[in-house]
């Protein structure tokens, strides 16, 4: 590891670095006369980098290739492969799955109708929020447990696994009883209490955790949110890019496909993309969904709703059922020329 | 209220607007032939605006002056004044208080030494984190309950009230037993479960809640975070600007004093500023602290630490004791020419 | 047109709106009693919207569909089609061209070698800067006229048309004598004197103008930069997305493919993408180039350089010759499944 | 100088660094075995840092304290002081001047009225645009030469010096004949042809150049824009912070006072602030102007207009004459407690 230190450190200040190295069983060599560059020789634990970053005397870590963190080394699939399975879905290792459904669970008939439709059209997982994070306390907050029950019913009917958000560490057990994949929303990405709690649940029950990038989170911050989950002993984490905040308003958020392409080389964890929340407009979901797959995404999260006018959140970005059929068909064709394949639920499975 | 609706709405889609108005006891008048502009006449509840914003048929709220939300109407002080008292501190209504202390509570002797010093120098509240939100799970997470006990001891010793962060809704009771002011950190600003829980506690026990602006939160989102707390029945909310994320790196975050000036006209809630976290550098805390007061801030949160080299987080931005003495003196002089005053703990009070 | 006006305008203030409408031959109708909403009936010129936006009394233009600007109506191709031809290249209307070459023109042998290579591999235009916009006056500023002469020689040798940047309105004639396409760089997007001058040249000589989006320009500002060029009487403008500034640093800029997808529905002008400058890293040029095509781009600008270590700017993002061959092959396959085709120089043409 | 190099450089790639050092008369020492850290010993010219930054082999400059650029060493005042004089105005070295006037020069009577008013109220320079940079070609572009003539008349009448923008390198002579200070607008900050041309004029005639920070320019980019001017041999450059682009919209731009505080320690050049363009709202100009002075600004640029309703640009942010009187009075009081003074035109001078 290569550290850049503050200039002009007093001996007792330099000592904090040497002591930390000692605790980690590493040796320190100063490269320059002014002792502002320190080369450390390990071996290092996954926690080593963060421990040195925490020191006042350290300005920055110039190189930490010999001290990888969990998100750099963990293989998310069983047996050391890079594919996470969840119900009929598979993410990573060349497999791509489509997650579709309404933004929020609002009405039983509507949910079951959408679930049937997206299952037929090629989705392998159903998304839908029972607990909704909302900017205003006066906005619709989701149906809560009643929504979870409806998701359970939709799964029984269609065979689709369920991706649903958990907002509160006190709800992890309750949501875990229904979810095939936990969703950590963008607003919760820095909620360490929640990340830790779902990590523990995942380590025990194997439920994968899909972590959405916060609206202004750096790629490193997203990876360290995943690190909180991985640190509890699970290896089943999926990363999700869903657009970041910027100054322009032709799209609601700015989809960062450079981050997706980068992540494919930086971690073994699958990376999926939510073009619906990024665009905030139904007409851009198809081009952005295709672009995401071309950039390397292992899956898509897409909002589908035949009657957005009856919903209380995000209706403007939902695809109609026929637009969703078209999207799946075109994603399949695109994935094929990129050497990947879209996973479908086998007929007999349903 | 004036709504802009989608173009070309079908009758059953327009009906969702008319029905919502009906539920709220409001009447609807369409201004243009195409029925894309709807004028609603109330009276309206604090929740009215959010309910209409939630509708798919509504593009935007053009005007909602006749439907104010809680953060626009609540007077934070007892008896309808705009001053929040917390121990010896007073925020708002011309009163300005200085909150000072280390970033995290790490060591008993150091904490008590800092507490004594900032009390002598003019702080009325002691800040310090027992629970620290950290980007990496491998970084120091705070001393937890042991940290709370040390804060309690520092208060007993100095008479300073305690401002400390709560991160998890399950810790609200525990933190509330020690805190004179709850701090909701920037990473928790969108954590509605936490906001609701501290709101409930504040409604019952009167503990003020200081809500920091999220790193990429709009001013309206900050106000709606406050709305979650106010919605539980308390009126004791303090807003805090602490810098937002931008592209430049001469400061760690970009302090948004335009937001402070705007908020002073938009809400009765006090607005304080944390120049330490914004700057991320000790040498800019003084000019930014003075600028904050000139822009209208009702208080400052400042990190002070005589031995930053021994700390595990944010040492680079901590003022030395003597720099803090200088800051208080200059803030007092500046506040005076701005027609405000810095509250001090009276000698006999300690 | 639908205008939102300031509240409480005095009669002489309202009069400025009515007078401007009068000058434009439009009629005004106020929709609400408070006269804050004005509906204007035209017909309108392309300048109408900007004229009303300029008025102090106008808060915003709510709708201007009946007053389109030039970038909304101009068909860029001869005879009313949407395809711009430049040498062997064609942009738009289902045709996609690849522009490749070094960042700057630095050395004769290197330039000719790259030109031969990219011509063979499938590029139809050669890019390369004779005039380089640099952040520091001490950095390499380009070879100037000597560089133009080398580009001329490369064209004669390979048949590739030349895309090159013009920085100064005084150089337009000189650059125009060599360029098959003018490039307006991101730093010049708001340089109205330059836009006007190249617009005049293009109106007279037909040379297309490729306008790159400024590093923090909104999509509307990009379109209005194009409007400056179109306003001089040419219809040959190509838009270019090349990444915007953001807070993360895994890529140098953040490629905004939502803007590309939006522009394909907002204007007839072709839209190309520069994944090299967006990524700032050679390893991400391929996935971002493919993503750009999937999102709807009509062409790519790609840096290619066999010996980046000898260059003075942007070497880190240049593709090697073999990586460029691979990119062209994969873009062709992807374009085909998207129903578009990559234009190649016919063998006999060279 | 301390350089970080790419990993795994071949000998001929390392050679590019050694050769550049040789050209500069510097020696190279590699600190680590892998030769990724190079310490260079000078002496260095002002251009040294940029030359090394330009090399492909160099990842970043870790330290360049021994190779300062012009903006770090130039003393802007005659005789080595830090005060720039322009007419009655003085910027820097404890002196603070207020520049006021309309956004654009539009009407003779209005201009003369404003000029008289701001001179009486305490401004020492009159600002006003004869050439206006506008987003749309259809918007009012300024009166051009007729506007310059009116500014000349206003100076003769009031004794105020003139600050006015130049947009086109071909206009530098013409604007220079009237301007006491050239203004380089935010959109022109990266226009190197223009910066060079005004630099040459300033070197010959002594006219100071006020460079506004681009809307998304980093502080370093602003300093390097100044470097272009200084590099022509003048030392009379003033920097101006006027807000940067962000995601929130309560203010038009986000005023970055951290940058102002940083610049006061990073350069001898005076730093002024334009709270009017930052706020975009008249009601926030006072608090932001005071905050700017508290943060260390050496002057303010303020828009003043008694009849904004008749203007074609930016009327919403102009102060009324009485609000300007109040601002000057309060800035004077504030400057005094900060140990600085606002320069006024002496009675007999007018």
Automatic annotation (TrEMBL), chains A, B, C, D:
Offer one example of a GO biological process linked to this entry. aromatic amino acid family biosynthetic process
Q: Name one GO molecular function term.
A: 3-deoxy-7-phosphoheptulonate synthase activity
A Pfam entry, by short name: DAHP_synth_1
Main EC class of this protein?
transferase
Q: Which domain of life is it from?
A: Bacteria
The residue ranges of the DAHP synthetase I/KDSA domain are 91-326
EC annotation? Answer: 2.5.1.54
| Keywords for the protein's UniProt record, in alphabetical order | Transferase
Protein name, as recorded: Phospho-2-dehydro-3-deoxyheptonate aldolase
């Amino acid at each position: 590891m290569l550290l850049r230190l503050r200039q002009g450190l007093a001996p007792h200040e330099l000592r904090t670095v040497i002591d930390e190295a000692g605790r980690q069983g590493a040796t320190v060599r100063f490269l320059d006369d002014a002792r502002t560059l320190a080369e450390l020789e390990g071996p290092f634990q996954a926690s080593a980098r963060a421990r040195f970053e925490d020191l006042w005397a350290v300005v920055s870590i110039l190189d930490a290739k010999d001290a990888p963190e969990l998100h750099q080394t963990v293989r998310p699939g069983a047996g050391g492969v890079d594919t996470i399975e969840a119900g009929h879905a598979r993410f990573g290792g060349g497999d791509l799955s489509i997650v579709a459904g309404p933004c929020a669970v609002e009405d039983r008939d509507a949910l079951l109708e959408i679930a049937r439709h997206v299952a037929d059209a090629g989705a392998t997982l159903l998304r839908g929020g029972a607990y909704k994070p909302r900017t205003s306390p006066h906005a619709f907050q989701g149906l809560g447990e009643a929504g979870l029950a409806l998701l359970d019913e939709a799964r029984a009917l269609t065979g689709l696994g369920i991706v649903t958000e958990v907002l509160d560490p006190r709800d992890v057990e309750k949501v875990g009883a229904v979810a095939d994949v936990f969703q950590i929303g963008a607003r919760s990405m820095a909620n360490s209490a929640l990340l830790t709690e779902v990590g523990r649940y995942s380590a025990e029950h194997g439920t994968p955790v899909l972590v959405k990038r916060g609206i202004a989170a750096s790629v490193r911050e997203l990876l360290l949110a995943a690190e909180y989950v991985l640190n509890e002993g699970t290896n089943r984490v999926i990363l999700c890019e869903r657009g970041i905040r910027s100054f322009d308003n032709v799209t609601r958020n700015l989809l960062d496909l450079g981050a997706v392409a980068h992540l494919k080389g930086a971690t073994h964890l699958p990376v999926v993309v939510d073009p619906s929340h990024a665009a905030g407009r139904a007409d851009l979901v198809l081009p952005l969904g295709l672009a995401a797959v071309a950039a390397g995404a292992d899956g898509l999260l897409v909002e589908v709703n035949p009657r957005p006018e009856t919903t209380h959140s995000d209706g403007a970005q939902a695809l109609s059922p026929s637009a969703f059929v078209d999207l799946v068909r075109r994603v399949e064709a695109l994935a094929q020329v990129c050497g990947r394949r879209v996973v479908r639920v086998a007929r007999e499975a349903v």
